[in-house]
Amino acid sequence: MDSSDSTAPGIARQDLIEGLGKGLRLIEAFDDDHPRLTPSKAAELTGLTRSAARRFLLSLVHYGYAGSDGKNFWLMPRVLRLGQSYLEAARLPRLVQPFIQRVSMQSGETVNFSVLDGHEIVYVARSNAPRFISIGYQVGVRVPAHVVTPGMVIPATWGDERLDAWIAEHDFSSFTAHTVTDPARYRETVLAARALDYWSTEQQLDLGLRGIAVVVKDRKGECVGAIGMTVNMQGQTQQQMVDALLPSLRDAARALRTIL
Length: 260
Description:
Elements: H1 18-29, H2 39-46, H3 50-62, E1 66-68, E2 73-75, H4 80-89, H5 91-107, E3 111-117, E4 120-127, E5 142-144, H6 150-153, H7 160-169, H8 183-196, E6 199-202, E7 209-217, E8 223-232, H9 238-257
Antiparallel strand pairs: 1-2, 3-4, 3-8, 4-5, 6-7, 7-8
Helix pairs in contact: 1-2, 2-3, 5-9
């Protein structure tokens, strides 16, 4: 569902600035498949009229958020300020940072904290491993939820009705031969994660890599995100990885719950 089709709880539609929502939706239309857009293509992707899409694109150029050669439009680095504002202003990543840093020092692995945004996992905090080469996702990276462990454990905290509705809207794209692309199998995985209170995967997004994650809850028991790691498969079995890494992840999640 497009977020523009409904309002957030407690907000009346007459209080919204529709133009702002349309402009943000247009920014989000730029992606790896569409790094450059014409007004016609932007209109097609966003549901705007061509003339409206052109005006929004020209406005982005005027304010420094886009560039243009007169025909095509592309985003400029200034757009990164929008995400950076969240990282600098949000309380949650700052609170999580020392806890994932401790886990990283204990385990020798890179540790991430991530949240679910729609149908994507977004990595909002990271502590690098104390080694020259570290594995994991940089802050700000977005990946489809079904291919990483946070995308299994976060939905595991939902009720069945919400989970089924989310699955029905999700695009189960394949990235490797091991990617779970069957909605029914993904649902079984989430239910298994719910029972275990953690989950680990292998080669869902990248060959040769494993992932493990646990949810982080606040004092009210509400899920606020997940702590996880991505590690190389060489040198240990999946169960050995779980035995080695799960205790410190759970300790961090328990400690965070007392302050969130």
